[in-house]
Each structure stands twice: as C-alpha cells, then as structure tokens.
Amino acid sequence: MSESGGDRYMLEMQGVGKWFGNFCALYDIDLQVRSGEKVVVCGPSGSGKSTMIRCVNRLEEHQAGHIFVDGTELTDDTKNIELIRREVGMVFQHFNLFPHLSVRRNLTLGPIRNLNLSKNEADERAMQYLERVRIAEQADKFPSQLSGGQQQRVAIARALCMQPKLMLFDEPTSALDPEMISGVLEVMVELAQDGMTMVCVTHEMGFARQVADRMVFMDSGEIVEVAPPDRFFSDPETERTKLFLSQILSH
Amino acid sequence: MTVDRSPPPAERRRPIQKLDVGVITLVILLFAYVVYRVDYVLVYDWDWEPVLNFIVTTDPETGSWMVNLLVEGLMMTLRLAFWGTIVAAVIGLLMGLCRVSGDLFLRMMSRLYVELIRNTPPLVFIFVFYFFISSQIMPLLGVEEFAREASPTTQKVIGLFFSPIGLFGNFLAGVICLAMFEGAYITEIVRAGIQSIDKGQWEGARAIGLSRFNVMRDVILPQAIRKILPPLAGQFITLVKDSAIVALISVQELTFSGIEVAATTTRVFETWIVVGAMYFVVCYVFAVLFRRWETSMPQDRR
Description:
The structure holds two protein chains of two kinds.
Chain A: E1 9-20, E2 23-34, E3 38-42, H1 49-56, E4 64-69, E5 72-73, H2 78-87, E6 88-91, H3 103-114, H4 119-132, H5 148-160, E7 166-170, H6 178-193, E8 197-201, H7 205-211, E9 214-219, E10 222-227, H8 229-234, H9 239-249
Parallel strand pairs in A: 3-8, 3-9, 6-7, 7-8
Antiparallel strand pairs in A: 1-2, 1-4, 4-5, 9-10
Helix pairs in contact in A: 3-4, 3-5, 4-5, 5-6
Chain B: H1 18-41, H2 49-52, E1 56-58, E2 65-67, H3 69-99, H4 104-118, H5 122-141, H6 143-149, H7 152-161, H8 168-195, H9 199-207, H10 212-242, H11 254-265, H12 268-296
Antiparallel strand pairs in B: 1-2
Helix pairs in contact in B: 3-4, 3-8, 3-10, 3-11, 4-8, 5-8, 8-10, 9-10, 10-12, 11-12
C-alpha cells in the first residue's frame, strides 16, 4: 500500500546486527518503512523489538549492517547522529520526561537548543502540540503532578515539537494503568491518521488492527514474519507467530 | 451510622528500661572519675581567666570591649572555609564532570587527582603542595605585590573578606591547599550525583537531539546539583575542621591562634578545651542549620 510515498524509504535497515557481549540481540534485520507508513512491531519479551528501534536513533549502536533514515546513513559521526535524532522522535515506556522542568519547558528545550527557535516561537509551538494531545491546560505543571497517561501524552508532544519525519514508540502504554491507556492510544491513532510515519513496538493489538499498514513479528532477535494486519491476525504463516498470537489474544 | 475515621492512637514511647539506667549511671560515674583524677590526683589548678581573655578583652586605653586572638582566629577559619569551599566546589564540579566524561584522558586525569589526594595524609599533601604554591605559583601571580600596591579601599575589602593585607599571599596559599584537598572529595560527590540520575533522562534528552554538552547542562546537572547540595553542605563542615591543618603553614586561623595562646598563657589544657569548644559550636550550629534547610527544601519532584 501507500504508493504515494515514492520509492525513497523513510527508514531502511539492511542486515542489521547487534550483540550484547556474546548475546545476539539482533540478527540480520531487514526492514523498509515508506514515508507515511505505520508499522507495528510485536513479539515475546526479549525478542529484540526495543533494541531494534533504539538502533534507529542510536540509543543502541548496531554492529553490523546499515541503517538509513530518510536516505542518510547512520554513522559514528556525532553531528550525523544528532541530525538524525532531530528527524526521529521517540516515545519511551517510562516517558523519560525531565522532572525538574515544567511541561512547557520539557517541550521547548529541544526546539530552542537545536532548531534555533526563539523562546516565544518555541512556546507557541509547544502550546500547539499540547493542544493536539489535549493537555494544554497542564502546561505549567511539573511532570510528577500529572497522571501516567498525561505524562505519556506530554512525552508524545515533546517528540512532535521537533517536527520529526519518523516517530518511534517503545511500548508506550506498557507502564500505564489500564484506564490511562485509551487516551494515549487515541492520540497515537490521530497521529497516524495525520500521515505520520510510525514504528510502534506495542502489545495493543486493537491499536495495531486499527492503524497498522504492516505487522512485524520478531523472535530471538530476528524478524520472523511481516504481513498486513488482516492476514497477520487471521492467517499467520509461521508456527511461532501462531503460538505468540494465541498467547496474547486468548484473553 | 457514621464511620469512625479518626486515626489509631499514637504508639506509646518505649519506657526507660534497666539497661538504659545502667548505661547512664556508668557514663556519669566515668565522668565523675575523670573529674576526680584531674582535681585530686593530678591536682590540676584550673585557671580559665588568661585563656578567656584571648576571646574578648577590654581595651587598656578606652576600657571598651574588643575581640582578641582566638576570635580573630575563628573568623579566619570561617573565611578559609568559605573561600575554600567555593574554590573546592569549582574544582570538584570540573573534575566530577571529567570523571564521567567520554574522554579517556580526562577520566584518567581526574581519577589520578582523586586517588592521589585520597591516599596521602592531608599533612603530607599540605607540606608538599604548600612549598610548591608559595615558591612557584604565588610569585608567578604576583599576589604579594598586588596586595601591597593595591589602593586603600581594595586593601580594606581584602582585609574584610579575606585576610589582613600582609598575610594575603599566605591566606591564598591556604585556601588553595584546602580547596585542592577537599576538591577531591567533592569530585566524588559530584560524580555520584551525576551517576545517580536515571539513564532514561539521558535517553530522553538525546532522543530530542540534544548534544552531550546540552544534556549535561540542561537535564543532568540541574537534577544532580539538587542531590549534591546536602552532602556539599556537610563537606563545608568538614572543611571547617580540616582547615586546622593549615596552621602548619602559618595561616593564622583558630588552631594557629590556639598554639600561640597556649604558649603565652602556659594554660595548655584550658586553651585547647576552649578552642575545641569554639570549633564544636561553629560546626554544630552549621550542622543544625543545614539539616533544617535540607528538610525545608522542596522534595524531589519525581
């Protein structure tokens, strides 16, 4: 689907490998994501899902293969890494908001430091994205004064303030209380509908069905299966995928 | 029916037990024994008057009260501790940043500094370092000349905030020695503070493209400093006590004054009890103040 994105991939991983000591966390990962495409990554814990997307913005260093973000290869060069990080937004499982800064300052820090926006421009942009995640009235509070769901929406807004071309989500709802999850997912669905390129590691299969263009199933550091969601859920190809789906969908 | 929501009765305090009484009695007996030994066996003739005269005395001409050697020494000790802590904090901050730097050379340099100082006696360090500073650094900076040729106002300011003008070079040497020494401990406090910040903070900051320098300045250090302040205050108190060693390089602080007073009055026992009491009062007051300040600080917002 999505032929409109052109031939250039927003994200391309070629034969990516990563080891922690002797433990092979990622092996020969090939993945292409077109502009505007939404990819949901799932798999059992320890299968390398997080490690894979953390390699994309160099929170982890890949040791084999190549990673291209919007046509630029990710190399050891510090400037290059910082440039790519500006293009790639990331949302973490534990939010990683800055507790000593107000919500507004959490959002404006990146744009002021890296996009050379003035304080006013950055403030304006911050309010715009806070409204988008429906939390504008909390701008002057500190992160600890918000609920988990609100904090995660602030974290999404913080990433959006850099106006990234690609958004990575690392289990964004896993640390939330059940009643907080839907608010965060709603924001993510809207983001998807607005055409953001997204790679989400999540166990929210309802969300996956709703927005994913492709499902990626990983196990033991490898990509086992890639399929559109309807086929992925109704007729998975491999035994491992079947087993995994039966485990998470049984209740 | 209304539900009773009053809190449960407060737990009763533990009553004094036989063992407590025994221990307290023993301590009192021991104290009484020491007093007995000093008074009746040593037959020590207490005479506090000459020593106390070195705290405050009356001006022989005008008859008004004036502070004497010991109080001047104490003021000098406080000035030493104040400036020493500031310089040590700067050294500690820089070296602490080096300790967690990505650069191997900086890490090794700061490690060497910390280990050298932590593993030599302070006295030895002061001797070695003082002769280096006073014979090499001070002439290089032209401190003595500067002090001598400064305008009367400048001299007055130096006299008030640092030391009498003639001893300025000596005072600076003392401050630098103490700061180099305490800086090593503050380095470790800073390092521990930085490393106590959750890894997620680094990741969150780097993910929005902040450079290593900006992550440190905007995200890590502001949080680390909040954690560092209480141990830093404690280090100030340590520095008040440690400043006694610069008496050896003739900085005229409290201990130095103590040596002079003991020699002049020959009341060794009384002099050092008074000097000790002065250190205790100052350090204890600071400890209490810092503890209050610490508890009144806003709790970590996390």
